[in-house]
Amino acid sequence: MLRNTIKCTQSSPKYRLNNTIRTFMNYQPQLNSAAAPSVLFTVQDTARVITLNRPKKLNALDTKMSESMFKTLNEFAKSSTTNLIILKSSNQPRSFCAGGDVATVATNNLNKEFAKSIKFFTDEYSLNFQLATYLKPIVTFMDGITMGGGVGLSIHTPFRIATQNTKWAMPEMDIGFFPDVGSTFALPRIVTLANSNSQMALYLCLTGEIINGADAYMLGLASHYVSSENLNALQKRLGEISPPFNNDSQSSYFFEMVNESINEFVSPLPKDYVFKYSNEKLNVIEVCFNLSKNGTIEDIIDNLNQYEGPVEGKIFAQEIKTKILTKSPSSLQICLRLMQENSRDHIESAIKRDLYTAANMCMNQDSLVEFSEATKHKLIDKQKIPYPWTKKEQLFVSQLTSITSPKPSLPISLLRNTSNVTWTQYPYHSKYQLPTEQEIAAYIEKRTNDDTSVKVTENEVIDHFANAIPSRRGKLGIQSLCQLVCERKCEEVNDGLRWK
């Protein structure tokens, strides 16, 4: 069992303070006003703060919110006085963003106002792509519920702050939709544990499992863990740092300065913290959700049924199966198809594929999905019982291709942003979050393969990842993570470790 034994240390980053410290704009009167904007744009010295301000809806994104953030971020990108972006909520610690306003989308669909729904997804996904390719640092405070569209706002940014209030999930299977906002691109790349072939990524998407802040940090869903009480002080500090040279806010060196500043405010994980997934549960996820070995949802169900291992693992496998079987059968199949495609594609193409899929599911020309009806059942009619799925048949490959592909009769595309770039791997994520199991495996295998007489110990592994990489030096939780990985994935040979 993974327990937190590491205390945070205070680092002393070398950065240059601005000569003039400007006062943070006070928006409290706006928050109390009935006419308050749903997104607030304010100044914290040389940082720009974007505050989601739709508390009665837990900051659920609507078209206007996505549109205004997209346009303003384009302006911030061109501003020589803007060094970094802070993305937060006026409703913390209750919610960062509970998702997209799919209740309105479902209403539009049922009224056959498909253009409104497609505009909503076009604006939202264009914002996701913009955040993923933004050239200046973005720091996201995930203080509270961070689900669906909230994951899309945070997961693509290099600095993702989890707190003791974070509740992270992709719960779209419950409403007959799919894990969108580029999550099937992001999760295969950033999740730290049991994810060599996107297993944990697929598990999180298919089950909609809720992850707390500490577990989100250990899993790589967050890059840092900061107590909610420290966020205001962190915001102030972020506004004070400036790149060493004018107009250098896009440099790698400035990203390092941002990381060092955040590290000053990191908090120890909760006392007596125990990681959500035991070694045996990780083994179940790793064996049963292997993306390269599962062509259909039936394959995954069969794996769960046939899992051989300790009693704990068998019980967990049956719990997962029971949970999956309550989800939309069509959505499960669409999710698997998107994970297969987006896990190996570049970011622009992946988010475009999400956009085509969302548009096709809204129009539902072939009546293959129940997104609008299930969303109305759960979110509009407030029914407590699960939606009774009627589309239970296995979709043909051609049908899955039709749902996840563009239609010549429906020309849609992402909005152009200022960076106009794409890539297959995040440029900064791996530098600032905990190392992945694959990184640890590569280090051990390289050392032992180069010289079979070399003995790599657990302490050497911990020392390498805690000290050899400057951006991770002294990082909270590295020791615990490395110990967990070595215990589960390595065997001792001649007083040294070998990767199994």
Automatic annotation (TrEMBL):
PROSITE patterns: ENOYL_COA_HYDRATASE (PS00166). Residues 48-391 form the Enoyl-CoA hydratase/isomerase domain. Signal peptide: none annotated. Pfam families: ECH_2. The keyword Secreted does not apply. Keywords: Hydrolase. Gene3D superfamilies: 2-enoyl-CoA Hydratase, Chain A, domain 1. Its EC number is 3.1.2.4. One of its GO terms (biological process) is L-valine catabolic process. One of its GO terms (molecular function) is 3-hydroxyisobutyryl-CoA hydrolase activity. It catalyses: 3-hydroxy-2-methylpropanoyl-CoA + H2O = 3-hydroxy-2-methylpropanoate + CoA + H(+). SUPFAM superfamilies: ClpP/crotonase. The keyword Hydrolase applies. GO terms for cellular component: mitochondrion. PANTHER family: 3-HYDROXYISOBUTYRYL-COA HYDROLASE, MITOCHONDRIAL (PTHR43176:SF3), 3-HYDROXYISOBUTYRYL-COA HYDROLASE-RELATED (PTHR43176). This is 3-hydroxyisobutyryl-CoA hydrolase. It comes from Saccharomyces mikatae IFO 1815.
